[in-house]
Structures are given as C-alpha cells and as structure tokens.
Amino acid sequence: MRKQFAFDPTLDFAIERFIDAPPRLVWEALTKPEHLKEWYMPKPWGRVVRAEMDVRPGGIFSIDIAVGDGPEAPNLGCFLDVVPMERLVWTSMLFPGYRPAVFDDIPITAIVTMEAAGTGTRYVFTALHRNAADLETNKASGFYQGTEMAVDQFVAHVIGMKR
Question: CA-CA-CA-CA torsion for 21, 53, 147, 124, nearest 10 degrees?
C-alpha cells in the first residue's frame, strides 16, 4: 500500500497536524483500544463504548459509539496495511479477514501516515470515498467536522501521554 493512492480532492479529504511527541507515542495512541476510547469520538457528541483492534492486515477494527444517550452503534472494519510508526490503513468496506462488508453507511478507507519531524511527528489522516457524492454527503453529515474534532482530541491525548 506504499504510496499506492493518489489524493483526489473531489473524492478525499485529509487532515494534517504536527504533534509534539515522538512517533512511538503517536502509534501507541492510535493502535491501543484504551487510548482510542479517549479520543476517537468528539466528546461533545458522544463516547466510545467499546473498542477492539487486532492491528495486522485482515485484523478487526471495531468501535462501538454512543451519541448522547442514544443506543450504541457498531462500526466494524478491517485493517489493510500496517507499518508500525509509519502507516495504518483500514476500511469499513471489509469485515475482518477481508470478508465483504454489509453496511448502511457511507464506506471509507482511512489512511494514517506519520513521520518524525523535528521534535515531533507529522500526522496525516486521509479519508478516501467511492465518489464525489459520498464525500459531499459525509461533509454535510458532520463526518468531516467530527473527524477534525477527533484529530484535535487525538493530538491533545498524545501530548498528555508525554507527562
């Protein structure tokens, strides 16, 4: 999966941050369920109820969220590519073991890259969509805004791990 995709602004969005922490801590916060539960869901919107991760190609990426006092909503996907402290790729279009997914949401493939930069880490989250309509629907639904909030929470969480 190394550089095998071309960013297309009509289909994708990317969020980039500098995190003043080493890639080791960024990777840990990204791949350990106990950390993911702290930052994944925008706090004003809800919470992560349960997280399960088997961080290897074909492994499970499962996050159950609750919005407000609402019911839990499962989110299940599959890791596609794992390069520790460099890249993590997962998709909601496949279930664990690369089984075709059944869903009623807009699927994405998420690509997270990180690299050492000075005293910290350059972190980039990219969401790939099937088509422009899916991207626009996701933006209108608040997915983009929520992802920005989650990335900001992620950065704060990683910085907190340094203490």
Answer: 50
| CA 143 vs CA 76, 138, 151: distances in Å | 16, 5, 12
Please give the average per-residue pLDDT across 75-102, as a whole number: 96
Rounded to whole angstroms, the Cα distance separating 28 from 15 reads 19
Task: Give the tens place of pLDDT for each residue, 129-140.
Answer: 999 999 999 999
Using CA atoms, how far apart are residues 116 and 86, in angstroms rounded to an integer? 9
Tokens, residue 150? 């989650």
- What tokens does 28 get? 């840990």
Give the gyration radius of the chain's Cα atoms.
15
Report residue 33 as tokens: 């369920």
In the block, residue with structure tokens 């869901």: 41
Rounded to 5 degrees, φ, ψ at 113 are: -120, 150
Tokens matching residue 39: 């930052």
